[in-house]
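Q: My labmate handed me this sequence with no annotations at all. I'd like to see what the chain might look like in three dimensions before we decide whether it's worth expressing. Could you predict it?
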Amino acid sequence: MQATSRALAALSCLTVGVYAIAVRPRLLRWGATDEEVAQPYPGADIVPNGTRGATMAVTIEAPANQVWPWLVQMGYDRAGWYSWDRLDNGGRPSADRVHPEWQHIELGDWLTAWSPGGQVDAWEVAALEPGHFLGLHGRSDLRGRPFDLAGPRPRVYIDGLWGFLLVELPGDRTRLVVGGYQTARPRWLQVVGDFFVYPPVHWVMQTRQFANIKRLAEREWTRTSDHQTHR
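A: Here is what I predict for the chain of 231 residues:
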């Protein structure tokens, strides 16, 4: 019995060690260059005392003005989130085209989110530079309810920025860099979340979103380019 317990403890320590040394660092910078990880990321002032979260990136073979429309129409009651729809969109397929009626957003707007338990939450549009940067601010208490920044903060809360930065590249290409900042109380909640929870969960959802936004934006850009060529 004691031998089994020691073996399980050793295996647990080994698993945590491999995760900490080999897995977690890769998840935190998936697809991002050294420069993208090292350079300042917009929106640090939105989450006071927040720590820099993961920086992930993908190259899209389409100009930034063709990628931006897919970002601004995100939302559970809009185009969805382009990730695993059963997990973050109530099972409804995310949009596969740009919807003109969802292209106008402003600072202070709320983009509805959805969680697997059926909980409806929301991200506030906290930073908006059309064609360049979209910053979504999510903050909730223990019950998953957004709290008002004008009042006192709950004893237990999560506060974070989910940012989408578009960087134009030569040859009608775009670098989509996703990053942000996060904090939580009590402090142990942030420590556990930053180490064990956020990196793998964010990686699973973000890489799927990257793949779908890349596919959709490149498809539409190819159609537009072919149409212009044959005019």
